[in-house]
Amino acid sequence: MSEHSTYVPGSAVEKWLDDRLPVVRFAKEHLMDFPTPKNLNYWWTFGAILVMCLGVQIVTGIILAMHYAPNVALAFDSVEHIRRDINGGRVIQATHAVGASMFFVALYIHMFRGLFYGSYKAPREILWILGVVIFLLTTATAFMGYILPWGQMSFWGATVISNIFSAIPIVGDSIKQLVLGGFAVGNPTLNRFFSLHYLLPFIIAAVVGLHIWALHVPGNNNPVGVDVKDSRDTVPFHPYYTMKDLFAMVVFMIPFAWFVFFAPDILGHPDNYIMANSQVTPAHIVPEWYLLPFYTILRAIDFNVLFINSKLGGVIAMGGAMLCLLIVPWLDTSKVRAGTFRPMFKWFYGLFVINFIALMYLGAQEAAEPYTTLAKVCTAYYFIYFLVILPVLSRIETPKPLPTSISESVLGNKAHA
Amino acid sequence: MSTQAEHTTTNRRDFLFVATGAVGAVGAAAVVWPLINQLNPDASTLALASIQYDVSPIAEGQSVTITWRGLPVFVRHRTPKEIEEARAVPLSDLKDPATDESRVKEGHEQWLIMIANCTHLGCIPTGQAGDFDGWFCPCHGSHYDSSGRIRKGPAPANLVVPPYEFLSDTLVQIG
């Protein structure tokens, strides 16, 4: 969007640089002058919060890697060494561990914001799909990171998840051995997960670059979901949204810091302070909270469907749950973006949010009644929401009248006076 | 013939382009394969593929868990009651039908040797528990009987019997 540039090189040096590598011009266009809808609410600050979270994870992670030993004999002790002996290590390790949880808090809020305000609709489909790719990469990174402390949950979580590969017909066991580098989770697994856990955040950063690029072509969606019509609908990104985002980051850091300083282990599992033992399974394996909704969907399929056995069925359901997110731009064909103006959608969306939290709760419960039946009901609603409710609502719902412009929605009829 | 017509027909140059591209693609694949293959189990892992174990210290009704290829393996000295129970089950009751005879070695019916990972998602089941006098997996609630066969729960198959043989009455070679 170079037409928004107001950059005029101020000195001969700036002019010289601008003719060769217009990096200052680029920054001014995209970080300062970028025209942003003037009605964005605080739900729109989570993009910037997520950039901060990624930065926190990369910085603390690089520091932890300086003290960590990716070997089954040393890994568990080296994490304790970081927590007890390294200067400030207790806080740095806690920031990284709590940071993973806070990352997912922001990520889920950011995604649910998009799902409510129709941010995935044309012309932002690629933007949304890149976001789902970031979510999947972040999930993989977090999963591999959880293996590294080499506690009981690390080991058995890795065992359970890698067994998912063995559900694939015919080649499943070969793929599992290729991923683990052995017949069971062991030293080769820990080594390669460490390597990939270090690599993936930089891949995520690259995809975030594409995500922002794809955002800056159509520009931001906004809480009323009508397109920007003229310059009265927008304000420059700086200082209006740089400051709003910074304020939101500070507020977000308050619970973050509370966890780091007062309850660094509360989001983890006590079993992970027992070193990994391939001979003993903990009585109750629970993944990290942010993976629980998808874990519940995996477990919910405990029955055979035609020729598909229960294990493969669960894996297909979990993959399908993530695939639904990728194709949602083509499932919800309603022209109205913002849920605010969709009287029926609002209620189904609200139920979807509650259902997602229920899936999260159920994933942490034992595989016994009434939880197994509830898990099936909640899994069914997850899929019905995407595959039935969204397409049908698009056809039968009468939306409320939309404001004619962003300005009108902010100022009321005064904008026309 | 006009110059344009010559360009629309396939000529020697097109063949060279395709041939060069194809050789390049094969070359790239040949380079990528070792980069992927290094992830497969290495020589030191494969070297542990066969172990010998003396079962004589295991008393009747006792189980031990040993390690083979990094996997836990149950060696159970079954009681006559357990063997009888396992053999009395009609095959039609089983999710993954297999006779008890097919899961042990002839003449060594009291010894049940199985990989100790639940066939669902790999947890180690608890011994002498569950509804069928066999094993119970606490992770997702699979019940196995005294022959290690799946009877109830999400696991799709019986506990896996590894390849093994009795070298003498008490010495077993697994793998």
UniProtKB/TrEMBL annotation, chain A:
<keyword id="KW-0812">Transmembrane</keyword>
<dbReference type="InterPro" id="IPR036150">
    <property type="entry name" value="Cyt_b/b6_C_sf"/>
</dbReference>
<feature type="transmembrane region" description="Helical">
    <location>
        <begin position="127"/>
        <end position="148"/>
    </location>
</feature>
<feature type="binding site" description="axial binding residue">
    <location>
        <position position="211"/>
    </location>
    <ligand>
        <name>heme b b566</name>
    </ligand>
</feature>
<keyword id="KW-0679">Respiratory chain</keyword>
<keyword id="KW-0472">Membrane</keyword>
<dbReference type="Pfam" id="PF00032">
    <property type="entry name" value="Cytochrom_B_C"/>
</dbReference>
<feature type="transmembrane region" description="Helical">
    <location>
        <begin position="94"/>
        <end position="115"/>
    </location>
</feature>
<feature type="binding site">
    <location>
        <position position="216"/>
    </location>
    <ligand>
        <name>a ubiquinone</name>
    </ligand>
</feature>
<feature type="binding site" description="axial binding residue">
    <location>
        <position position="110"/>
    </location>
    <ligand>
        <name>heme b b566</name>
    </ligand>
</feature>
<comment type="subunit">
    <text>The main subunits of complex b-c1 are: cytochrome b, cytochrome c1 and the Rieske protein.</text>
</comment>
<dbReference type="InterPro" id="IPR048259">
    <property type="entry name" value="Cytochrome_b_N_euk/bac"/>
</dbReference>
<dbReference type="InterPro" id="IPR005797">
    <property type="entry name" value="Cyt_b/b6_N"/>
</dbReference>
<feature type="transmembrane region" description="Helical">
    <location>
        <begin position="314"/>
        <end position="332"/>
    </location>
</feature>
<keyword id="KW-1133">Transmembrane helix</keyword>
<keyword id="KW-0249">Electron transport</keyword>
<dbReference type="InterPro" id="IPR027387">
    <property type="entry name" value="Cytb/b6-like_sf"/>
</dbReference>
<feature type="binding site" description="axial binding residue">
    <location>
        <position position="197"/>
    </location>
    <ligand>
        <name>heme b b562</name>
    </ligand>
</feature>
<dbReference type="InterPro" id="IPR048260">
    <property type="entry name" value="Cytochrome_b_C_euk/bac"/>
</dbReference>
<dbReference type="GO" id="GO:0045275">
    <property type="term" value="C:respiratory chain complex III"/>
</dbReference>
<feature type="domain" description="Cytochrome b/b6 N-terminal region profile">
    <location>
        <begin position="13"/>
        <end position="224"/>
    </location>
</feature>
<feature type="binding site" description="axial binding residue">
    <location>
        <position position="96"/>
    </location>
    <ligand>
        <name>heme b b562</name>
    </ligand>
</feature>
From TrEMBL, chain B:
<dbReference type="Pfam" id="PF10399">
    <property type="entry name" value="UCR_Fe-S_N"/>
</dbReference>
<keyword id="KW-1015">Disulfide bond</keyword>
<dbReference type="InterPro" id="IPR017941">
    <property type="entry name" value="Rieske_2Fe-2S"/>
</dbReference>
<dbReference type="InterPro" id="IPR006317">
    <property type="entry name" value="Ubiquinol_cyt_c_Rdtase_Fe-S-su"/>
</dbReference>
<keyword id="KW-0472">Membrane</keyword>
<keyword id="KW-0249">Electron transport</keyword>
<keyword id="KW-0812">Transmembrane</keyword>
<keyword id="KW-1278">Translocase</keyword>
<keyword id="KW-0479">Metal-binding</keyword>
<dbReference type="Pfam" id="PF00355">
    <property type="entry name" value="Rieske"/>
</dbReference>
<feature type="transmembrane region" description="Helical">
    <location>
        <begin position="15"/>
        <end position="36"/>
    </location>
</feature>
<dbReference type="GO" id="GO:0005886">
    <property type="term" value="C:plasma membrane"/>
</dbReference>
<dbReference type="GO" id="GO:0046872">
    <property type="term" value="F:metal ion binding"/>
</dbReference>
<feature type="domain" description="Rieske">
    <location>
        <begin position="86"/>
        <end position="173"/>
    </location>
</feature>
<comment type="subunit">
    <text>The main subunits of complex b-c1 are: cytochrome b, cytochrome c1 and the Rieske protein.</text>
</comment>
<dbReference type="InterPro" id="IPR019546">
    <property type="entry name" value="TAT_signal_bac_arc"/>
</dbReference>
<dbReference type="InterPro" id="IPR036922">
    <property type="entry name" value="Rieske_2Fe-2S_sf"/>
</dbReference>
<dbReference type="InterPro" id="IPR014349">
    <property type="entry name" value="Rieske_Fe-S_prot"/>
</dbReference>
<comment type="function">
    <text>Component of the ubiquinol-cytochrome c reductase complex (complex III or cytochrome b-c1 complex), which is a respiratory chain that generates an electrochemical potential coupled to ATP synthesis.</text>
</comment>
<comment type="similarity">
    <text>Belongs to the Rieske iron-sulfur protein family.</text>
</comment>
<keyword id="KW-0813">Transport</keyword>
<keyword id="KW-0411">Iron-sulfur</keyword>
